[in-house]
Amino acid sequence: MKFDKCPCGSGIDFEACCGGIVAGRREALTAEALMRSRYTAYILKKVDYLVETTHPDERSDDLAGSIRKWMRQVEWLKLHVVATEGGSDLDEFGQVEFIAEYIANSGPGRHHECSVFEKVDGKWCYVGEECE
């Protein structure tokens, strides 16, 4: 796949936004940047990146298989960032609330999530979902 603008919806050039992060040429500096890069990785089917950016304590033995299964079931269409809390380059923790539109075999849908992130050895990692 080739993109001019990043599929995360930032409006920024793909390479300057998530492309370089997913390819490992630079780190996500904020929790939101990591969340956007993970969304993009789902579109690009970059399972290894998604596993590597999951918090080590949350990496189950079947994580890669679960990700692959979800990738086969869903085509991601659009990302909306609703809110962020913390997650700057100076923080150790952050939350990003987002809505991702998709099409599945059962039809269109929206995935609403409040993602939690934590820095591990100076790098942002996805911890899990926390919704109130």
Automatic annotation (TrEMBL):
Name this polypeptide is given: YchJ-like middle NTF2-like domain-containing protein
Pfam families cross-referenced by the UniProt entry: SEC-C, YchJ_M-like
Domain YchJ-like middle NTF2-like: 30-127
Native species: Pontiella sulfatireligans
Lineage, broadest ranks: Bacteria, Pseudomonadati, Kiritimatiellota, Kiritimatiellia, Kiritimatiellales
Family matches, as InterPro entries: NTF2-like_dom_sf (IPR032710), SEC_C_motif (IPR004027), YchJ-like_M (IPR048469)
PANTHER family: ADENYLATE CYCLASE-ASSOCIATED CAP C-TERMINAL DOMAIN-CONTAINING PROTEIN, UPF0225 PROTEIN SCO1677
